[in-house]
Amino acid sequence: MSLAIRLNEPTVLASMQGLDDDVDLPLAATEAAEPVIVQSLPEGARLLDYEIIGLIGEGGFGIVYLAYDALLERHIAIKEYMPTTLASRASGSQAVVIKSERHAESFHVGLRSFINEARLLERFDHPSLVKVLHFWEANGTAYMAMPFYEGHTLAQVLETMGRAPVEAEILAWLRPLLQALTVLHAARCFHRDIAPDNILLTPDGPLLLDFGAARRVVLDRADTPTVVFKPGYAPIEQYGEMQELKQGAWTDLYALAAVVYAAVTGRPPIPAVERWVDDTLLPLSEVAQGGYSPPFLATIDAALALKPVDRPATAADFLARLDAVEDAPRMLEAIPEVPEGVAVPALLAVPEPVSEPVVAAVAPVAPPLITDPPSLGTIAQPWERRSRLPLYALLALLLVLGAWGLTALRNRAPAVDAPAERPAATASSPTPAPEAAPVQASAPAPIPPPPMPQMAPVPKAVARGPATAPAVVRPPAPARDAVAPSSTRAAPEAAPSRTADVRQRCGEIIQRASIEPLRSGEAAFLKRECRQ
After folding, report:
1. Homologous superfamily of 1-150 in CATH?
2. Reduced to 3 states, what is the DSSP secondary structure of residue 351?
3. Coil, helix or strand for 335?
4. pLDDT tens digits, residue range 31-89?
5. Which residues of 484-497 are buried (b: 16+ CB within 10 A; e: fewer)?
6. Backbone angles phi, psi at 433, to 5 degrees
7. Rounded to a whole number, what is the distance in angstroms from the first to the last CA of the chain?
8. Is the Cβ–Cβ distance between 237 and 247 less than 8 Å?
């Protein structure tokens, strides 16, 4: 099945030598299939104004030829609709005949799908989508002419690289393909078979190949339904239409993210039907940590979510996340470096004392109203003005009590240092303690202490104490870490409760899902009974 899908591509290679190599593989894999070889048109045959030069590829549902356009003097590729299970070439003729009357309906349904696909592709004009130049019906079948694309499939390139591609190399073909899917999905058309061997890397950029609409229609109508996708790249909704798992743009996004996963790790993800039972797929953010930027890996992991609702909904959404990945380094480079100093981290670490430096900074603005140049005494003047009120009160008290009152007040001065509010003020600004003694003697009344910190706008001293405050945020992290092991240990405990019959049926369903769609109720059974 994978052979048929591989050969159904409208691919062309860089040279005739490459074309010969590409054809030798399918012929060697189908040595016993003699009739398949003679199905192709001979060299020199003419189709309209096109002359057949050779064979590019041949599969179970179509044949791709290299041809020459004599009118425009250029090479092109021609794809012929030829489902070998339903029809064959008439002896000594270009005509295609249906093998049996019971195959007629399936053949014609596939033919209509082939033409509709050609008509759809002819409407698109995107460099990463195959461009159909012309399509027509003749010889009892249909054809579509396409440009002669030079290049190799992504599967071939990855195999010969000998290493994983770097992030920039991946983005070079991932971004254009997402743009192509945006155009494709806008017409409510979905590829449903994206894989490394369906992506052609050309000098002009990547190209999405092999929509295979006719193949899917024919197989859907077959007596025995056959899976027409590649298990490692197909999401769970392609294993069988389920009410809660509909196909859509997110289906192609999963497959494209799976291509990236395979490019990075060297193997495709675990088949989605196995993940549906027990999702043991390691995310790229863990497998490729350190080799790629974390936002890039997180974007691919999101598109590989098992449930469609957890994936990006559209190709445009996927592209927006990639744009954010590429913009992040530029944003970081645009941020100016913070000059050395303690003031900035102090304000960040201790938000409450911010008002104090502001007051201290505003105070020097007042001197322009004063005619004389400011001096040390002038800078301290605002504090002195606030302390005169108690002095006036003290003066009135002295007039009433006389010399005895003054002596008594001085004797009570040490008792004024005892209130609890004072240590709080001195703790934030220990340096002005020597100057504070005269003021404390003149302040028996409950006057608030805020003026004292204004005399010592020393942000360094304030910041060093709470500078380690961010460390307090770390304790919640172990709490989350402690929960994860408990959940992972609890998962295997449910396994012993499975009976042998349930295990056997689970295995049979998963194995059969690789060759045919899930039957009614099997998806629910896997989800309900087969989870580990």
Report:
1. Phosphorylase Kinase; domain 1 (3.30.200.20)
2. coil
3. coil
4. 334 444 468 999 999 999 999 999 998 887 899 999 999 999 999 999 999 999 999 99
5. eeeeeeeeeeeeee
6. -55, -45
7. 31
8. yes
Only one residue has tokens 């008509």, namely 119
**Which residue type is seen at 349?**
A
**257 contacts 153 by C-beta, under 8 angstroms:** no
Listed in sequence order, the residues at least 6 apart from 201 whose beta carbon sits closer than 8 Å to its beta carbon are 151, 152, 153, 154, 157, 173, 207
Q: What is the pLDDT of residue 5?
A: 30
Residues 245-281: pLDDT tens digits? 889 999 999 999 999 999 999 999 999 999 999 999 9
Map tokens 């007039």 to a residue: 399
What CA–CA distance (Å, rounded) separates 150 from 160?
17
Residue identified by tokens 């996963």 is: 261
CB atoms within 10 A of CB 409: 17
Report the alpha-carbon distance of residue 459 to residue 434 in Å, rounded.
Answer: 20
Task: Give the tokens for residue 427.
Answer: 């703790």
Say how many C-beta atoms besides its own lie within 10 A of residue 178's C-beta. Answer: 24
Q: Over 70: is that where the pLDDT of 103 sits?
A: yes
Q: Record the pTM.
A: 0.58
Q: How many CA atoms lie less than 13 Å away from 337 in the CB half-sphere?
A: 3
Residue 473 — φ and ψ, nearest 5°? -75, -20
Give yes or no for a contact between 429 and 458, defined as CB atoms under 8 angstroms apart.
Answer: yes
- Region of 97 on the Ramachandran plot (φ > 0 left; ψ -120 to 50 alpha; else beta): beta
Cβ atoms < 10 Å from Cβ of 308? 20
**Residues 6 or more apart in contact with residue 369 via CB below 8 angstroms:** none
The single residue listed with the structure tokens 């201790």 is: 350
Least confident of 112-116, 397-401, 474-478: 474-478
CATH 3.30.200.20 domain locations along the chain: 1-150
